[in-house]
Design brief:
The structure holds 2 protein chains of 2 kinds. By secondary structure, chain A is an alpha/beta fold. Chain A folds into 2 domains: 16-80, Chemotaxis Receptor Methyltransferase Cher, domain 1 (Orthogonal Bundle); 91-282, 3-Layer(aba) Sandwich (Rossmann fold). Helix content of chain A is 40%, strand content 17%. Chain A is built from 11 helices and 10 strands. In chain A, strands 6-2-1-7-8-10-9 form a 7-stranded mixed β-sheet. Chain A has a 3-stranded antiparallel β-sheet with strand order 3-5-4. In chain A, a hairpin with a 4-residue loop joins strand 9 and strand 10 (279-282). The radius of gyration of chain A is 21 Å and the shape is globular. Chain B is mainly alpha-helical. Chain B folds into 2 domains: 1-79; 86-100 and 112-180, no CATH class. In chain B, 69% of the residues lie in helices and 0% in strands. In chain B, helix 9 runs parallel beside helix 11 and helix 11 (148-157) packs antiparallel against helix 12 (163-176). The longest helix of chain B is centred in the N-terminal third of the chain and has 14 residues, at 36-49. Chain B is elongated. In chain B, 49% of the residues are buried. Classes of the chains: A alpha/beta, B mainly alpha.
Chain lengths: 289, 180
């Protein structure tokens, strides 16, 4: 993916009407929405992408974007989102897990039963490890159930890094010193490695969300974290991913998406569940005509 | 796909995704399927096939009396912007204004100049203000400057329908990038 077709930067005039047009497209395509107060943020990123693609005007760039030439939608989304992943990102969803979701899930389980949680895509492991840490720190029933956490990604290099569990200061910035002290140990280069017990407690596997055959090996999850990946897919792939995720969940199980994502815009298969800390989506217990 | 068990029909529909020789089986099953989740999987299977035959299976559902079924058909067809292209002119000339209105939405995912050509042809001879309004709404997002003369004519033709000249002004400013 060539991300630097344009060489030198140049001033591109973008009118308010063009920004409006762009924002409406961006919202419909990705669910990302920006207030008028973010105009400078939008302008800067738009100008960067216009320059990077070698477009001579907004009009030319917008046409290229709409046809997704050279995967421009992916480049654009990357420029508008925080690509960096870190521990306890979108903490409100982790809080929702321990204050609402797990209580609802274990109501149908006996003590000692298995509770399966899936992080997909898990990238370099910050999310599945965050889930494990959060559970140990915040869920009083953590020892009453057999909790299985699986982290999956399409990128095997990311999975290797996840299994190693070595992180720098930035990835740990949201964790207290106390938590870092109890669950991490210093390694070379000023980094920290998550403790061996935690590393061994999470199963890391390769998975492709839009490969139905590949996904048949993933079943019976009670809770899935699938954040900030569906926005990259086209309509047909999103539908397929939603159906695959449906099959991976137990009836009554929940799925958490990224903050700009809405399953309602993708598929009618799931029911919206509003909790004090987050809006999540639930696989219904049964079909209704 | 004939199983009385919805899970079995769901699984069967998902297994047929992308198999071109399964279109007629999916068509027959879709016609008698009552469970929304299974209908959704059948639509997805047809999208994954994505040829003219699968489009022809979905098109009749644009005329359904059930708004949910019409919406599902539109969403399915929108996912196939290339395959739907040969069907656009007949759809935009359909005798049913509801079908013409829904068809304008199918242009939203098409390449800008082709969407502009199709929607301008529609607007230039369309007599129903709601169909014109739907087409203008799509042009507001995807239209190229070639749409401007048609939009001007539309505003004149529907001058007595206040919301249309307003919608035209918004579309023209977005397309031209200039304040209305």
């Amino acid at each position: 993916m060539d991300d630097s077709k344009g060489g030198s930067s140049f001033a591109v005039h973008i009118s308010p009407e063009q920004v409006q047009r762009f924002c409406e497209f961006l919202y419909r395509r990705t669910g990302m929405s920006f207030a008028e107060s973010k105009r400078y943020f939008i302008d800067r990123r738009l100008e960067d992408r216009i320059t990077a693609t070698g477009s001579s005007s907004f009009q030319e760039y917008f046409s290229l974007l709409r046809t997704d030439a050279d995967q421009e939608i992916e480049h654009l989304i990357n420029s508008f989102t925080v690509n960096e992943t870190y521990f306890y990102r979108e903490e409100h969803q982790l809080r929702c897990m321990t204050t609402s979701l797990l209580d609802a899930i274990v109501r149908q389980k006996k003590p000692g039963a298995t509770l399966r949680i899936w992080s997909i895509p898990c990238s370099t492991g910050e999310e599945p490890y965050s889930i494990a840490l959060w559970l140990m720190e915040n869920w009083p029933q953590v020892d009453s159930y057999n909790i299985e956490i699986v982290g999956s990604d399409i990128d095997t290099r990311a999975l290797k890094a996840a299994a190693e569990g070595i992180y720098g200061d930035r990835a740990l910035m949201r964790l207290s010193r106390d938590i870092v002290g109890r669950y991490f140990g210093p390694v070379t280069g000023g980094n920290y490695q998550i403790d061996e017990g935690l590393r061994n407690s999470i199963e890391f596997t390769r998975a492709n969300l839009i490969d139905t055959k590949d996904m048949t090996q993933y079943r019976d999850f009670d809770l899935i974290f699938c954040r900030n990946v569906l926005i990259y897919f086209d309509d047909a792939s999103r539908r397929l991913a939603a159906e695959n995720l449906y099959d991976c969940l137990r009836p009554g199980g929940y799925i958490c998406l990224g903050h700009s994502e809405s399953m309602s815009r993708i598929s009618p298969l799931f029911r919206v569940s509003r909790f004090p800390d987050a809006i999540v989506y639930q696989r219904p217990e049964a079909d209704h005509d | 796909m004939d199983s009385p068990d919805a899970d079995s029909r769901w699984t069967a529909a998902r297994a047929l995704a992308g198999q071109a020789d399964a279109v007629s089986a999916l068509a027959a099953a879709l016609a008698r399927e009552a469970i929304p989740r299974v209908r959704e999987a059948m639509m997805t299977a047809l999208i994954r096939i994505g040829n003219a035959a699968s489009i022809e299976v979905i098109l009749p559902y644009l005329r359904s009396q059930d708004a949910g079924v019409r919406a599902a058909a539109i969403e399915a067809l929108q996912a196939l912007p290339d395959a739907i292209a040969p069907f656009m002119t007949p759809l935009l000339n359909d005798g049913d204004s509801d079908v013409r209105l829904l068809a304008t939405e199918l242009a939203r995912n098409m390449e800008g100049s082709e969407a502009t050509r199709l929607l301008c042809e529609l607007i230039d001879h369309e007599h129903h203000p709601n169909v014109c309004a739907a087409a203008i709404d799509v042009l507001t997002e995807v239209g190229t400057p070639d749409a401007l003369p048609t939009l001007e004519r539309c505003a004149v033709r529907f001058a007595a329908t206040p919301f249309l000249p307003f919608a035209v002004a918004v579309a023209m400013s977005r397309i031209s990038g200039e304040e209305s």
